[in-house]
Amino acid sequence: MSKWVTVWGNAASVSEHRPETYAKDITLRYPVKCAFAGNKIRLHFSNFCGTEDITLNQVTIAPAVSDREINLKDAALVTFSGKESVKIKAGQEIFSDEIDFRVKPLGKVSVSIYLKDFTLMRSSVVVTGPLSSGFYSLGNCALKSVLPLEKTRTTNVFYFLTGVDLLTDDKNRCVICYGDSITSQSWPDYLSMLCMDDPYNKTAIVRRAASGTRVLREYDCITYESYGLSGKHRFEREISSVSGADTVVIQQGINDIIHPVGTEINPFRPMSDLPTLEELEGGLKYYFDTAEKHGLKVFCGTLLPIKGWRTYAPFREELKNGINDWLKNCGKDCIDFESALRSEKDGAAFKEGYDSGDHLHPSEEAYKHMARLAFEELNK
After folding, report:
1. What kind and span of H or E run contains 300?
2. pLDDT surpassing 80 at residue 1
3. Averaged over 96-105, what is the pLDDT?
4. Element (H or E) spanning 335, and its range?
5. Of residues 67 and 297, more confidently modeled
6. pLDDT-based confidence at 19, cuts 50/70/90?
7. Residue-wise pLDDT tens digits, 337-357
8. What residues contact residue 85 under an 8 Å CB cut-off, 6+ apart?
């Protein structure tokens, strides 16, 4: 065991601003399925999008017995420079100490985080999928084997914890899936499951995606601040914090096309935010160049059908098609998600059964298809 590899991870983005954005005396518990074995572990925490310091009062890691239950006998206290609690300054990220902790192949562990004092729950991301859910409980449950049913709720918001690294075999590696809400939903989880079903697997899938994000723009109002940071404010930081990565799959750009509607309709969404084809290509080139600077092989994913979405218009379809044509001919390995998911009768719309219903996000079957397609391309 000689190499650190991130086996699980998420982006650090911005929680929606509500009156109840502070929490006190709660425990977060996040189950994580590990693609391969390791004998040491370290955790990555981020308060990058926070505007106030936060304190993690107690953090534990333990083998997961079930979603809410852990094996206390083999639990370990996570420390930070030898201390049990840690303050993370606003805008900062930290790693825990290296913890001796043995993980079996396909082993499931749970990270529990206790927040004693009022804490600004701002640096977070919403993700969904069969491997992506967590819990929060009232009180300090970091060293409780079972979360109390009457004081516990499920959550798909992942606060502060952005990575789990294992010290593992040198042959293992991870692949980063980067994007917006389409990637913060199910297909990276299904891709991870395909990898873990392979008895010769050496790949972990790490998600770096946040709903609403755009390549070129970000909002500066509390109405839409949860739509996250622009590419130049997040891409390099997010890919460089992943250990053992050698590949990134990038599928982003549709929000740049569908968001602008004009200030007469929405004061925060001027048509001046709509990029030209050349501007959007430039933003994606920045991703490609930055990824390669960090030694990552780039796979780009085409943008998906949008016909029927509430801001759909022919000029948006034209821009989307122009980007997809460029992606397929830009010299990078391209995963043509759109061709696999679009209708044969109407190429601007999803294939029957592949539309979630909003005409923008795929259905679960479509996400499974995306995962299969990505798995095949990554393993050619």
Report:
1. strand 297-301
2. no
3. 96
4. strand 333-335
5. 297
6. confident
7. 999 999 999 999 999 999 999
8. 55, 56, 57, 58
Short-list 218, 229, 222, CA closest to 18 = 222
Strand partners, 87: 55
pTM: 0.97
Three-state DSSP state, 298: strand
Where does 142-258 show beta strands of DSSP type E?
Answer: 152-155, 157-159, 161-168, 173-179, 203-209, 245-251
Cα distance between residue 117 and residue 24, in whole Å: 5
**H helical segments located in the chain:** 181-184, 187-197, 231-240, 254-258, 277-293, 314-328, 337-341, 364-378
Residue 297 amino acid letter: K
Query: What whole-number distance in Å separates Cα of residue 198 and Cα of residue 50?
Result: 39
Q: What is the pLDDT of residue 18?
A: 86
In 47-187, which ranges are E strands?
Answer: 54-56, 58-63, 76-77, 86-88, 93-95, 99-103, 108-115, 119-120, 123-126, 134-138, 152-155, 157-159, 161-168, 173-179
